[in-house]
Amino acid sequence: MMYTLVQCVPCQRAKHLLAVNYADAAAYFLELVGHEDWQRQLQVDLHRMTGQITFPYIFICGRHIGGES
C-alpha cells in the first residue's frame, strides 16, 4: 500500500520503481486529490504512526518500509 499525492515527484518516482522492479506484485495506491483538510489530517496520522514527515508512505504487508528514498 502506498499513500501518495498527485503532483508529488518523489511519489511518482516510487511508483515507477515499484512498477519496474516488482512488476508481478499487486500494488495498491491511495492517491490524495484535493480535500486539503483530509490530506493534512492523514499526513499527521501517518507521521504519528511512522515518524516519517513526507509522502509517499509505503507499507508492505502492513509494515511501514519508508518512502521514496
UniProtKB/TrEMBL annotation:
Name recorded for this polypeptide: Glutaredoxin domain-containing protein
PANTHER family: GLUTAREDOXIN DOMAIN-CONTAINING PROTEIN, PTHR46679
The species this protein was found in: Haemonchus placei (Barber's pole worm)
Domain of life of the native organism: Eukaryota
A GO term, aspect molecular function: protein-disulfide reductase activity
Cellular component, GO, one term: mitochondrion
Domain Glutaredoxin: 1-65
